[in-house]
Each structure stands twice: as structure tokens, then as C-alpha cells.
Specification:
Number of domains: 1
Helix content: 10-25%
Radius of gyration: 18 Å
Strand content: 35-45%
Number of helices: 4
Distance between the termini: 68 Å
Low-confidence stretches: 1-12, 165-178
CATH architecture: Beta Barrel
CATH superfamily: CheA-289, Domain 4
Strand order of the largest sheet: 8-1-2-11-10-9
Number of strands: 11
Length: about 180
């Protein structure tokens, strides 16, 4: 009787290419397939009554893109922009299951890493009161530990509902207000 095939583990299922970036001197990664582009930090137009971590919107080649500061989202202190500061434009799911683009301000981009399942471990359990459902796992990349993020979970449906921007993003008249 032939041996049973191994059950795929969570880390094997998460193997693939990840864009790694820096926030507060720590490495993070997100699936390359979620990344649309990386742009230099640019002027962000503030939008009133947004959560503190939502900086506002940018006009990216005629399309309005909401931008959040990942430092503030994670509860880190605000930092001045440097030459390495950039905006990673990602594709996320809205609460209505449609996809939209959103920018994330990060301290800098490192590399695209091709990770095998053996390079990724499950996120540790920090106790019941700390939410870690947005962490895919922890990766070992060139001797450094990177936290792999589920970007849909990081941004979260609540943030997207608070934005009330998606309808405006799809409407050409919204661009004229910038």
C-alpha cells in the first residue's frame, strides 16, 4: 500500500513571492500578487473625519486612491518621511467583495523574496487579547525574521467602511476635486 501524501501545512500553502518592507526597523512582507505598484512618497490630500491612520487620498494617473499610514495603523509613533519612504499600492477586497486599490505608507521597501514553505512558520500565540488574524506567518529571510501580513486583514473591512471613498474612487468627477 503506497504511503499517504502529506497534508499541506499552513506554511506550505503560504509559500510564494513576498514583497518585504520596513516599518520601525522591522521587516514585514506581503504577497506580491496583492501589490500593484510602488511609488515615491507624494502629496496626500487630507479627507476630513477619517481615522488617524488614514492619511487621505492621492491622484494616481487619474484614479483616486485612499492612503493609510501603516505605522499609525500598527500603533507605532509617527515618523518624518525620508528618501526611502514610499507608498505601496495594493489591491484589497471591499466589504461588498469588489476589489479596490489602496496605498500604504511604509518606511522603505527591501526586496521580493521567494519563500519556500520551510521558510515560514505559523504566527506565535500572543494570548487571547491580542489579534493576530492578519498575520500569515513568520518568515526567515537571510537571517532576519519578517512578519508576513494578510493585507485584507490588516486594512480590514471596518477601515474600508469608514473611508466611504470607494464610490467616489470609481467616479471621474471625484478627480476634479483634487
Amino acid at each position: 500500500m503506497p504511503p499517504k501524501p502529506l497534508e499541506p501545512t499552513a506554511s506550505r500553502q503560504q509559500a510564494g513571492k513576498y514583497l518585504t518592507f520596513i516599518l520601525q526597523n522591522e521587516s514585514y512582507g506581503l504577497e506580491v500578487l496583492k501589490v500593484r505598484e510602488i511609488i515615491r512618497a507624494t502629496t496626500i490630500t487630507a479627507v476630513p473625519q477619517m481615522p488617524a491612520h488614514v492619511r487621505g487620498v492621492i491622484n494616481l494617473r487619474g484614479k483616486i486612491i485612499p492612503v493609510m499610514d501603516l505605522r499609525l495603523k500598527f500603533g507605532f509613533a509617527e515618523a518624518a518621511s525620508t528618501e526611502q519612504t514610499c507608498i505601496i499600492v495594493v489591491q484589497v477586497k471591499r466589504p461588498d467583495e469588489k476589489v479596490m486599490q489602496m496605498g500604504m505608507v511604509v518606511d522603505g521597501v527591501e526586496e521580493v523574496a521567494n519563500l519556500a514553505g520551510t521558510d515560514i512558520e505559523e504566527a506565535p500565540n500572543f494570548g487571547g487579547q491580542i489579534a493576530t488574524d492578519y498575520i500569515i506567518g513568520m518568515a526567515k529571510i537571510k537571517g532576519v525574521i519578517a512578519t508576513l501580513l494578510d493585507i485584507d486583514g490588516v486594512i480590514g473591512a471596518e477601515t474600508l467602511k469608514e473611508l466611504k471613498i470607494p464610490a467616489a474612487c470609481d467616479h471621474p468627477a471625484a478627480i476634479e476635486t483634487l
